[in-house]
Amino acid sequence: MLVIIANIPYNILCHIMRWDFLDIRNERVVVDIINIIGIGEYTVSDNCNDIIKTFALSSCIAVTIYNPYKKIGGMIHIALPSPTGVSTDRGPGFYATTGIPLLIDLLCNKYKCLQRELVINMYGGADSIYKEDIFQIGKRNIEAVLNTLTVLNLDVQYSDTGGFISRTVEMNMDTGNVEIMSQPITI
Length: 187
Description:
alpha/beta, CATH 3.30.1330.200, 5-stranded mixed β-sheet
């Protein structure tokens, strides 16, 4: 099976990965696309060969949403609970209160998913290792995600949040299964 990281042209990827021997012009190759999302980004996929992944969540939250009947899903990497009112260049995916409704709307309107069929999971929201941390962003992010989903009449089916660990989250679009890789936060 060939794995391609999205947004890298094939010829450059072959050079980087030293795949000069690979010639797909005359052969059928099954390709898994890994869609990497960064802080404040989100994506939706209806390709069962895709994988959606985000790295190193600490106080940030990843919300995965999957429709098992249509094999369509998405993920968002949330950094903060809500906009502060100060003008920034950050997009709506940066915040729980703006990003989650946007992702739900995209799944339900563009991809015609029914809200009752959505499986919603939440990961991240780690605690600060500093006892004097007055901001408590991880806890505030968790609360904002839960409150936003409540307003939308949706629930989290599974949650792996809090603690002093960093999480990398990977969702398989064929099954909706989510794999979590974690390590202790040390800095």
